[in-house]
Amino acid sequence: MRIVITGGAQGIGFATAEILSQENHDIVVVDKNSDTLKKAKEKLGCETVNIDITNEHDVSEFFESISEIDALVNNAGIWIQEHLSEMSLAKQQEVVDVNLMGTLYCTKHALPRIKKTSSSVIINLTSAAAKTNSPGLGLYAATKAAIETLTRQWALELSPIRVNAVGPGLIMTEGTAENYRGKARELRANAVPLKRVGDASDIADVIKFLISGEARYVNGQILYIDGGLTAGSAGR
């Protein structure tokens, strides 16, 4: 299969590109960070494209330039932690532009290139934050909740293409490492029923499943990969 992965130069995106490459899929990694993109190309040997998904013109040109694809993984995303009372609307607009509009641009312009069969898949990245309503996350959780709504909507609109979303919980990546320094990792792990913080491969394995024929009847679903974090408190 030919698969496009946005934000694929590091973190969950890179782990996904790596595991799918090992399955002999043809991977195209899209990222705006040219340095990490270069390193990803060296490690994976796959096609890489340097674009900013918030630029609809560039996204459109990219998809017009490539051949038919089987899957799109809308992984690129950012967060800027801010309390409402101190929120910078300009900064939070960046979160909306990347997480929500970037996902929209990529999906819209990828459509002419995606094969119209149930073997084709669009996977959006949401977050457990969309369900836990964690304070201090600015508009991050709101953008992910919007992505969940669009995932269900697109599953109806784009059939027979399957559309699903994956929601990571507490996951250790390059981008989140600062949140797990010192005692923080142990404290966060204790909040998870499985008593561990996840890593990028935990998410990549589920994305691999959703792309595979084994998930051929999975459509319009939101899968939280969080060790049970969103299930609620066991102490009630």
Describe the structure.
- The protein is of the alpha/beta class.
- It has a single domain, classed as Rossmann fold.
- It is 41% helix and 17% strand.
- The strands form 2 sheets. A 7-stranded parallel sheet has the order 3-2-1-4-5-6-9, with helices on both faces. A two-stranded parallel ribbon has the order 7-8.
- Helix 1 links the parallel strand 1 and strand 2.
- The mean pLDDT is 94.
CATH architecture level-2 label? 3-Layer(aba) Sandwich
Which fold name fills CATH's third level, the topology? Rossmann fold
Shape estimate: globular
How many structurally independent domains? 1
Q: CATH top level?
A: Alpha Beta
What's the pLDDT, averaged over the residues?
Answer: 94
How do the helices and strands line up, and which of them pair or pack?
Layout: E1 2-6, H1 11-22, E2 26-31, H2 34-44, E3 47-50, H3 56-65, E4 71-74, H4 89-110, E5 121-125, H5 129-132, H6 140-157, E6 162-168, E7 171-172, H7 184-190, E8 198-199, H8 200-211, E9 222-225
Parallel strand pairs: 1-2, 1-4, 2-3, 4-5, 5-6, 6-9, 7-8
Helix pairs in contact: 1-8, 3-4, 4-6
Features of this protein?
two-stranded parallel ribbon; Rossmann fold; seven-stranded parallel beta sheet; 236 residues; alpha/beta; globular
Nutshell version of this structure?
This protein has 236 residues and is of the alpha/beta class. It has helices at residues 11-22, 34-44, 56-65, 89-110, 129-132, 140-157, 184-190, 200-211; strands spanning 2-6, 26-31, 47-50, 71-74, 121-125, 162-168, 171-172, 198-199, 222-225. The radius of gyration is 17 Å and the shape is globular.
